[in-house]
Amino acid sequence: MRPLDLTCANTLGLPCLADHGVTIRSLSEATASWRSLRGQGLRLTVLGGGSNVLLPPRLRGVVWRLAAPAPRLERHGRVEVFGGVGLDALVHSVGEAGLWGMENLAAIPGTIGAAPVQNVGAYGQSLDEVIEALEVLDLRTGQIARWSRAQAAFAYRDSLFRRQPGAYCILSLRLRLHLKGTARLHYDGVRERLETLRVSEAALRPLHLSAAIRALRREKLPDWHQYPNVGSFFKNPVLAQAAWARLQARAPALAMDRYERTGGKLSAAQLIESAGWRGRRRGPVGMAQRHALVLVNYGGATRADVLWLAGSVQASVYARYGVRLEREPLML
Ligand SMILES: Cc1cc2nc3c(=O)[nH]c(=O)nc-3n(C[C@H](O)[C@H](O)[C@H](O)COP(=O)(O)OP(=O)(O)OC[C@H]3O[C@@H](n4cnc5c(N)ncnc54)[C@H](O)[C@@H]3O)c2cc1C
């Protein structure tokens, strides 16, 4: 077995050496590899694009990475796709085919196999809306089963896969997209961006919307190639009504919207910014100037540096506002 350097395989650029890596190209390869690893008593970790993980310096056992064959576009907007296909590449392919349903998920890094884990979402769209079924390998028993969307228990940035880390590998997905769609334009800046592209609403196609979202994201988020990061470092907290009322009394500007309108969801970025963390650096890590929710590795950071800064931000937001921030990236 040869060690595999994953330092360039995670968007936060954390140094990590895995014992060994295997590429999985099919369901039968997955089963064969699983049996062989089980026989040798080796630990198995599934890694996608490494855009939502905090890697340790040393990852014991074997790392699986799924291959990326071309997705199969079938009739009536149905798509079969293997787990290693890049999410953004898929958004582009289905957009080119004129299919609606994923256009607002443009420019999110990572693979489609990992995307159901936190039910990726952006600009008013989330992946579970287009999932029809998933081919899932139970890493504890070696059984492959076809899951319905309901079985995965999707929620806001959450799913059963996320709640049971390391228990499953999503090998492929069946998506149901739409030949006729309704564009979701209600997020800040989307309509304005489309105006600069000079596309009328009547002529709008999925690729136009993806182009607008890509441009918006380029403006708002630091580029991870230049400033290594994992996107939003914390989830937007959802408060119960009593906690919302307490925050309203303590910091009226932060909870000024009506509870019913937001469903109790607060902006984590606003909390972090109000607590004074935007643009603040601590050694090799810091919260980005461009977006308070993005934790950046400015060079040479380890997972310990990242966790230390994240813990400091969480403690300071809790001390000021009584709100607990939950980390979004997963520890491997
Ligand atoms: C710049 C930037 C912007 C981002 N913007 C968004 C955004 O707008 N919305 C959003 O929701 N997220 C966003 N993210 C987070 C991230 O891109 C998503 O969570 C993405 O789905 C992670 O995919 P990945 O392939 O990189 O997964 P990885 O980081 O490799 O893995 C994440 C977790 O999934 C597990 N996993 C990986 N592959 C599989 C599989 N096939 N089966 C089962 N488990 C698996 C891993 O073990 C790990 O626990 C952003 C990240 C970055 C860096």
Describe the protein's architecture and organization.
This protein is α+β, with helices and mostly antiparallel strands and 332 residues long. It has 3 domains: 4-66, Uridine Diphospho-n-acetylenolpyruvylglucosamine Reductase, domain 2 (2-Layer Sandwich), CATH 3.30.43.10; 72-220, 2-Layer Sandwich (Uridine Diphospho-n-acetylenolpyruvylglucosamine Reductase, domain 3), CATH 3.30.465; 241-331, Alpha-Beta Complex (Uridine Diphospho-n-acetylenolpyruvylglucosamine Reductase, domain 1). The protein is 27% helix and 20% strand. The protein contains 9 helices and 16 strands. It has helices spanning 27-40, 87-96, 160-163, 190-196, 206-220, 241-250, 259-262, 268-274, 303-321, and strands at 4-5, 17-24, 44-46, 53-54, 58-66, 72-73, 78-82, 121-122, 125-126, 131-138, 144-148, 168-176, 281-282, 285-287, 295-297, 330-331. The strands form 5 sheets. The protein has a 5-stranded antiparallel beta sheet, covered by helices on one side. A 4-stranded mixed beta sheet has the order 1-2-5-3. A 3-stranded antiparallel beta sheet has the order 13-14-15, with helices on one face. A hairpin with a 2-residue loop joins strand 13 (281-282) and strand 14 (285-287). The site of flavin-adenine dinucleotide has 35 residues, from strand 3, strand 8 and strand 12.
